Amino acid sequence: MSSFIVAIGRNYAAHAKELGNAVPKEPFFFLKPTSSYIQPGEGVVELPRGTVVHHEVELGVVIGKPGRDITPDAAFDHVAGYALAVDMTARNIQDVVKAKGLPWSTAKGFDTFTPIGPFIPKSSIPDPTRVGLHFSLDGQVKQSGLTNGMIFPIPQLIAFVSSIMRLEEGDLLLTGTPPGVGPLNPGQTFKATLTYPELDGPILSSFSF
Amino acid sequence: MSSFIVAIGRNYAAHAKELGNAVPKEPFFFLKPTSSYIQPGEGVVELPRGTVVHHEVELGVVIGKPGRDITPDAAFDHVAGYALAVDMTARNIQDVVKAKGLPWSTAKGFDTFTPIGPFIPKSSIPDPTRVGLHFSLDGQVKQSGLTNGMIFPIPQLIAFVSSIMRLEEGDLLLTGTPPGVGPLNPGQTFKATLTYPELDGPILSSFSF
Ligand SMILES: [Mg+2]
Ligand SMILES: [Mg+2]
Ligand SMILES: [Mg+2]
Fold it and tell me: By 3-state DSSP, what share of chain A in percent is helix, strand and coil, each rounded to 5?
């Protein structure tokens, strides 16, 4: 299976602004290697020497049915379900490569840079604009945002990505992070949580590292 | 298997210069999705609407033994063999994203953007610095370069990439392109050829689209 992780950047206006970036007029994405996955219980998330690692809690969309040039109307037919994920980012490396016009792969691609929770079937989240995404560090809430803040909703994202490359079963689409990103320090414990419906709804997924 | 394509940028000084880029002081890479592979006989290479697609003929290194933090001395133990490949690039998209500090994934990731020939066992290329890489368009030679022109040789590339992410069996490392890149136009036929040893040696691999 040719699985990959395709991650959308700056898909929440408040997050784009907190990093001093313009709000994009069309979606853009980068690829993360599947070697960056780490599931709860598999070990620790690396903070590589010399890096400033930021957390970005995100809703992951798991593709269930392959397709190219998928229309927004048909997009949910291609979704098998969801997963809670964190798009770890070596922010200092990203700042350097952005300034130089270089690819983002190093900043986003270290092993363990995509912590991910268990698969959530599509039926558990009938309306993916009402998902709450939360991230806390040593018990202190850092991110807490609703997926209705996405600039480009899931159908548009699937249409855009699949206009460039064929999606396959098992591919993961990371849909961007709400505001509140910041650094992780050695020894800190973090917790990611997905609630539905809304920010104060029942917990559908939660994991700690 | 978590296969990916990791592609090194600007690894031949003459190619970096032909695009007006600085010669890098350390390697950098980007990821291509494995969905971009196309093998001879599988169809045509896409020239997506609105794109200016450049050819970059490259030596691909196929990983045979998994590893992280591989030393340059041990690098060839992790190599199973080689493949001739073309790193197709939507140059106009790449120019725009470079200027904006955005990721390169779209420019490099379209379906069919990694034409690739059959596997060449390591034993057929005892010295990978003596490989000839050739690309012709409608019978006219556009690229013809020797792999001894690499700024960072294969052991350094494997050490660099594996310092960031674990390599697995089947992963492909594209090692950069010699000078002579340029656009493909609709209706043109191209041919990529790998010779060994040297530019005028026997043909080990060749394919046309
Ligand atoms: Mg795929
Ligand atoms: Mg992100
Ligand atoms: Mg290239």
Answer: 25, 35, 45
